[in-house]
Structure formats: C-alpha cells, structure tokens
Design brief:
6 strands; disordered N terminus; alpha+beta; single chain; about 20% strand; 6-stranded mixed β-sheet; about 160 residues
Length: about 160
C-alpha cells in the first residue's frame, strides 16, 4: 500500500517538532493502515536516514515520546538481531506493540530495502513481530511494508 501526500516540503527540524507537539497520542493505532496514516502525518517525507519507533500501549496509544534513531550505515543480519533484542527489551517495559518507520531519503523504491525484512524476521524469532513497518521515501512517498507470504521463496 502506498500513499502520496501533496504537502509542501519542509526540511527544518522545527517544522517536525511542531508536528510532533500537535500529535494526538490518545488516538488508538491498532492496524497497519493506522500506522501508515500516522507515519504519513508525522514523518511526511524522508529528510534523514533514521527510524521512528511507535511504542504502543494495550489501548493502541502511541507513547508520548516517539523515538527517532539514526540507522547504522550497514544494516545486515547481525545488526537486525541486535536491534530486535533492544526493541524486545523495550516491549518488556510496558509497551505491548511496536511499529517501525524507516525514513529513507535517496532510495527510489521501498522494495530496494532489505532492512525491513531482516528486522521483521529477527523480531518474529523473538516472538515480537511488529504491528507494521512503514517506509517513508523522498517526495512524500509513504508505503506500508508487508512481509512476504509464507512459502513465497519456495521454488527459487
């Protein structure tokens, strides 16, 4: 699922701080479509290579602080396992679900990214698959990343 927004480009951090300050943390986020909508509203377009973490409580409310973390330059299986272990620990501290937004400027197509697949697999092995992962690219392209269907790699 991809959505494109016709929002004027703002690259300064004060604009994002205003958006975060006005974000309604009490509105429930329960489905991947909800995550896509929130990501499109909060992140809008890719400016910096980073993750946004939506930590959700039992009522689907996003934690009042939406962490933004710079991504490592290389993101392979080892890094995915390390990040998954950290996120699993965060989830044990009171949040029940997690959604991850990949802000990726300079990428032409979200399908070029292997990171969401690696992180999904690592989190699933720990029994903590994310509610959703969203990829935000430049030019206000926001896409819901979906894991491959079971058995999709068979026969290759």
């Amino acid at each position: 699922m991809t959505t494109t927004h016709e929002t004027p480009s703002h690259s300064d951090t004060s604009y994002r701080e205003d958006i975060l300050a006005s974000f309604d943390h009490t509105a429930p986020v329960r489905t991947p479509a909800d995550v896509l909508e929130v990501a499109a509203r909060l992140v809008q377009t890719a400016h910096k290579r980073q993750w946004w973490l939506f930590l959700l409580d039992e009522n689907g409310r996003v934690a009042p602080v939406v962490p933004q973390l710079e991504m490592p330059r290389r993101f392979g299986e080892r890094e995915a396992e390390q990040v998954a272990a950290l996120l699993s620990t965060l989830l044990q501290q009171g949040c029940t679900e997690l959604a991850i937004v990949w802000e990726q400027p300079g990428i032409g197509d979200a399908d070029e990214l292997i990171g969401p697949s690696l992180l999904h697999a690592a989190l699933t092995r720990l029994g903590r698959p994310p509610l959703a992962q969203v990829v935000v690219l430049s030019e206000f392209r926001v896409r819901l990343w979906e894991p491959p269907a079971p058995g999709a790699d068979e026969g290759r």
